[in-house]
Amino acid sequence: MIEKLIDRKNLSEIAEMEKEIFCNTAFSEKQLEEMEEIDRYRFLIVKKEEKIAGYVILYDSVDVWEIMKIAVKKEHRREGVGEELLSYISSLGQIPIMLEVRENNTGAIEFYKKNGFEQIATRKNYYTDTGEAAYIMVKN
User: Fold this and answer.
1) Whole-angstrom distance, CA of residue 108 vs CA of residue 102
2) C-alpha torsion 67→73→78→84, nearest 10
3) Nearest residue to 63 via CA among 115, 98, 106
4) How far apart are CA 78 and CA 91, in angstroms?
5) Residue in 53, 88, 89, 58 with CA at minimum distance from that of residue 71
């Protein structure tokens, strides 16, 4: 079941997941706290056994939902957590959902395609830590 972020403890959990999953591009707890104070950001979480199993950080760009980050703990992958988060975002309104994904992240790219996203552009040398391109994907 999707929940909206409810307390700072959740931000600490998200910050830990950020470090584990995103390494060099992880948001710090301070950055997450700053984002949480801005109305255009939304944090949605899925809990399993009282712990966050997955989360998404959304940015409301008025005419599009931008997925800033979406992550699922390794032990909860392939349990439908990511699909649940994407489905919930789709239910928020009839506006496109946009995201960027590393060109070499084939698992994520396939996941997004399976969930209705299509690649619309490429940003070359986008990720400063590796020089990888970013694929821009959209679901209308």
Assistant:
1) 9
2) -40
3) 98
4) 21
5) 53
Per residue in 70-82, is it b (16+ CB within 10 Å) or e — as a string? Answer: bbbbeebeeeebb
User: Letter for the amino acid at 20?
Assistant: E
- Helix (H), strand (E), coil (C) string for 44-68: EEEEECCEEEEEEEEEECCCCEEEE
Closest by CA to 76, choosing from 92, 96, 104, 52, is: 52
What's the pLDDT tens digit per position in 57-102? Answer: 999 998 999 999 999 999 999 999 999 999 999 998 789 999 999 9
Structure pTM? 0.89
Tokens representing 12 are: 């600490």
Residue 12 CB neighbours (<10 A): 14
Tokens found for residue 57: 């950080």
